[in-house]
Specification:
The complex is a heterodimer of chains A (295) and B (274). Chain A is mainly α and 295 residues long. Helices cover 74% and strands 0% of the residues of chain A. Chain A starts with 11 loop residues before the first helix and ends with a helix. The N terminus of chain A is likely disordered. Chain B is mainly α. Helix content of chain B is 70%, strand content 0%. The longest helix of chain B has 32 residues. Classes of the chains: A mainly alpha (295), B mainly alpha (274). At the A-B interface, helix 1, helix 3, helix 4, helix 5 and helix 6 of A face helix 1, helix 3, helix 4, helix 5 and helix 6 of B.
């Protein structure tokens, strides 16, 4: 008799052969560049004057004293925190809405997914046009009532809000799909039992549905948090880091240092920092994910 | 007629859903309006001259570099998808059905690669490419996209192929097929929807990329997302062409909504039941 699942020792070699190309490719395309980045961060490599000396931790010491770097971290945190809160709130609202409030609209689920597939450059350009006062129908609409909409992109926090809005538009569908999947996994028996016991719909939502959704919400929030750390097209197209340095998030700052100021090794040091930061958070994602699949 | 419960809460709920639908669709409708507006009426509200529409932007777009850039996008996104599927699906199969003590490490490594900031890959890749002459080549860009697509393909096919019953594989192996033949002739056809969705999503990731293409391409292999930026110059912004190009750029991603949307959750990192 054959033993069950994947316990055919005579095929271990074949399985390993199937795994090998992927391991090899990851080694070439991912591990080597990452090691290269780490190596660069300990040098003073510069594109214009490409001598290459080992300067130890100097780049990292410079990071600590760098005002623009500290500014970039606070910008990054604002973009991430506001973005994640907005997306999870809205995603939860739409998922619960589709599932509980207007179940007849379930066909609309696909329609809510549309923004998710729009390439981020296009997202950025569409919202740039909506935030351009001379062009935007929003401004034109409020002009009828003689209300002047303040131009978002020229103020410090306005520019951050603009990027958060565009990101929320593009990413809420993903959050919504994940919450919807978790919501459908919750047995309706609990709801029924609670409603027989006289709980109102609101009570059922706050006391039963939401606590059961908590692991999924945590998971999707962490996942989106890491994705928002990588903002690039939205910043590049909509604000170019401005006004001033108001939207220069860390990822974007690493790009500027490397490719505009040619400070390759310093850019690599920023990237190393960002990588470690994302690595710590992805550890929590892995743990949240494991709990979710075990539960 | 079913009894309609038109309580205040119900109305509030429906209003909220309508508001969300408006937030989702008004920007899309706006981009369609923009792409059909003549330049002379661009800065007038649409309700002042709703009939002022034009096909001019199609000509502008056709005469620009954009169709060429679209071709580059198809080649690079398609190439990296095919390569990632050929390399990644067998690996996903081995992880799903093989016996190994190191599966946890594999899952953690895949997650870490999905999460890693692209700027970390791009800086060394740029320098390596500069030295071996792969900047601004299809091969260079396809290779770079493997960083994005391969972890996703392995993860997603791992999840999909886990659901194939072991009996099916054992029966095929008992009939004397090799493991590879079993994968191609038995497992893949049985898991077709999941595998097709994986390929579609891999294509989407590469197709939507802006950052890698911005750094690695110069002129010969500029992809469509980077080429759109040509319509933005210091002197003026060609909004009509931008809007039309954005719509064209989005069209190939529509299959995702039609037949891959329930796989998005599974392939993007979450292994959520449901």
């Amino acid at each position: 008799m054959l033993p069950s699942a994947g316990v055919q020792p005579q095929f271990n070699r074949a399985y390993r052969m199937m795994l090998f190309p992927a391991v090899f490719a990851v080694g070439i395309f991912a591990i080597i560049p990452l090691l290269g980045m780490l190596g660069l961060s300990f040098t003073d490599f510069h594109l214009i004057k490409p001598w290459d000396r080992d300067i130890g931790l100097h780049n990292f010491e410079r990071l600590i004293g760098d005002r623009r770097f500290r500014n970039s971290i606070s910008v990054m945190m604002m973009l991430s925190v506001f973005g994640v809160v907005a997306q999870v709130t809205l995603g939860l609202a739409i998922a619960v809405g589709l599932e509980k409030i207007v179940p007849r609209w379930r066909f609309a689920r696909g329609m809510f997914v549309v923004p998710f597939v729009v390439p981020h450059v296009a997202v950025a350009l569409i919202w740039l046009s909506l935030f351009t006062p001379t062009l935007s129908p929003i401004n034109a609409f409020f002009d009828i009532f003689a209300i002047t909409v303040p131009p978002l992109l020229t103020s410090q926090y306005g520019a951050i809000a603009a990027i958060v809005i565009a990101d929320t538009w593009a990413s809420t569908p993903f959050v919504m799909l994940l919450i919807l999947a978790a919501l459908q996994g919750i047995s309706s028996d609990l709801d029924e039992a609670a409603s027989i016991d006289g709980a109102s719909k609101m009570q059922i939502f706050w006391r039963i549905t939401l606590p059961l959704l908590k692991p999924a919400l945590l998971m999707v929030a962490l996942f989106r948090f890491i994705e928002t750390l990588k903002h690039f097209p939205l910043i590049f197209v909509m604000t170019n880091g401005g006004p001033g340095r108001a939207t220069q998030a860390t990822n974007y700052y690493a790009y500027i240092q490397t490719f505009q100021s040619s400070n390759v090794s310093y850019g690599a040091a920023i990237a190393v920092f960002l990588f470690l930061f994302a690595g710590i958070i992805s550890f929590y994602v892995a743990r949240a994910n494991a709990r979710l699949t075990d539960a | 007629m079913p009894k309609r419960d038109m309580s205040f809460k119900k109305i509030a709920g429906v209003t909220m859903m309508l508001a969300c639908l408006a937030f989702t669709f008004l920007p899309i409708i706006w981009s369609f309006i923009l792409s059909f507006r003549p330049t002379t009426h661009l800065f007038e509200p649409i309700w002042q001259s709703p009939t002022q529409l034009t096909w001019d932007n199609f000509q502008t777009l056709a005469r620009s570099d954009f169709p060429f850039a679209l071709f580059n996008s198809v080649v690079t996104a398609g190439g990296s998808t095919i390569l990632a599927m050929i390399i990644g699906v067998p690996a996903g199969f081995a992880l799903a059905k093989g016996r190994s003590q190191r599966k946890f490490i594999a899952s953690w490594a895949l997650l870490l690669l999905r999460m890693a900031p692209p700027v970390g890959f791009v800086i060394p890749l740029f320098l390596i490419y500069l030295n071996i002459g792969l900047l601004d080549t299809w091969i260079g860009l396809i290779a770079a996209y493997m960083v994005l697509t391969l972890p996703m393909v392995v993860w997603s096919s791992w999840t999909s192929l886990s659901q194939i019953p072991d009996e099916l594989i054992e029966a095929s192996l008992l009939d004397g097929a090799s493991l590879f033949q079993t994968l191609v002739k038995v497992v893949l056809p049985a898991a077709r929807p999941g595998i097709v969705a994986t390929a579609v999503l891999a294509f989407l990731i590469a197709w939507n990329d802006f950052f890698f293409a911005l750094v690695i391409t110069r002129s010969d292999t500029v992809t469509a997302p980077v080429a759109i930026m040509n319509f933005v110059s210091y002197a003026s912004v060609d909004w009509g062409s931008i809007a039309l190009a954005s719509i064209v750029l989005t069209l190939p991603t529509v299959p995702v909504i039609i037949f891959a949307n329930k796989y998005i959750v599974q392939s993007m990192g979450g292994a959520v039941k449901g």
